[in-house]
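Example pasted here:
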Amino acid sequence: MFGYFFDSTYLLMVLIPGLLMSGIASLMVRSAFSMYSREPTQRGLSGAQAAQLLLQNAGIYDVQIQRAQGFLSDHYNPVTRTLALSDNVYDSNSVAAIGVACHEAGHAIQHADNYGPLWLRSTLVPVVGFGSTASELLLMLGFILHAKPLLLAGVIAFATIVLFQLVTLPVEFDASARAKRLCLEYGIVTNSEYTGVNRVLNAAALTYVAAFASSLLTLLYYLIRLGLIGGNRSEE
C-alpha cells in the first residue's frame, strides 16, 4: 500500500528529526530571549523606539509601528506597511527586545530597498496558500484511491511550501544582519550588549532553518515513496 501513515521510514526520516529540530530551535529561542530580556540596554530605548530610529535613519516614514498580541508574534507586513511588535518587545528596553525590534525594522528596510528575496517571498505567498491546501487534499485522495497522478500533483503542491521556506532563509538572515549592524552603528546598543542581540537573533534564525529542513525531509520522503528517487516503492 502506498502511504506514510507512521511507517518506519516516515518515523525515522521525517517525524522524529522534525520534532527534534523544531523542539531544539524553539528551546534555544525561548532560552536566549528569556536570558537577555532581563538585561536592559544602557541607552534605554524601547523596542518601538529602536525600530522607529532605524526606520527614520533609513528615510522610511510611511511604516506604522503597532502592537501585536502573543509571545514573539512580531512581524512586518509589506502589504499594509505595518511593523507589529509584541508586548514583550514594544515597551521593553531589554537587549532581547531591541534585537527583535531591529530585526523587524530590517524587513521594512529590505522592502524600501526592493530586496529581491523579500519580493520573491511576497510573490509566493498566494501560491503557497493554494499549495498548502491543495497538497493536503491531493495527497489524502491519492492515498485513499491509490492514484499516483494525484499523489504526484500533491507532492508538487507541497514543493511550493519548501520553496517558500527556502526563499525565507536569506530574507531572515539578511534582516538579522541589518539589525545587528545598524543597532550598533546607531548606538542603540553597546559592544557588550551586541553579544546578546547576536545570540537572540541567531537563535531565532534556527527556527526557520528547522522548518525548512523538516519540510525538505518530508518532500524527500514523498519522492522516495513515489519512486522518483531511491528506487520505486509506489506500488507497495
